[in-house]
Amino acid sequence: MEEGADKRNVLADKSYQYALKIISACKELTEQKEYILSKQLLRCGTSIGANVAEANGAISNADFSAKISIAYKESLETKYWLKLLHDSNYLREKNFSSLYQLADELSKILYSILKSTRIRKTDN
């Protein structure tokens, strides 16, 4: 197995585990009767892993790069909704910090992959 495939599997695992944490947080939010913002968070927070899964099944480098780009944008959106939920007192500090830190980690990994795939594309 090539090194890039190992990184993709780590990213796929991390983004899947993150989606599970987002689902759990959204369950808590709906118990607080917060439905609108939590739905936004659920959508983008779980979309990261879904797009990583699609990227891993990409049929071309351009397709891979496009899906990673979407996953990266979803991670940024997730961070936005987390901050909004925290600042509006729906997410407690501990839960917010953990989820935000993980989203930030995913963002950095995705950006790094995106940057390297775009560089390879221009080298060809």
Keywords:
87% helix; mainly alpha; de novo design (two linked rop proteins)
Tally of separate helices: 4
- Major sheet attributes: none
Radius of gyration, in Å, reads 15 Å
The topology string of helices and strands comes to HHHH
How do the helices and strands line up, and which of them pair or pack?
Layout: H1 3-31, H2 36-56, H3 61-87, H4 93-123
Helix pairs in contact: 1-2, 1-4, 2-3, 3-4
Description of the molecule:
The structure is a single chain. The protein has 124 residues and is mainly α. Helices cover 87% and strands 0% of the residues. The chain contains four helices and no strands. Helix 1 packs antiparallel against helix 2 and helix 3 packs antiparallel against helix 4. The longest helix is centred in the C-terminal third of the chain and has 31 residues. The chain starts with a helix and ends with a helix. It comes from Christiangramia fulva. This is Four helix bundle protein. InterPro entries: 23S_rRNA-intervening_sequence, 23S_rRNA_IVS_sf. Pfam families: 23S_rRNA_IVP.
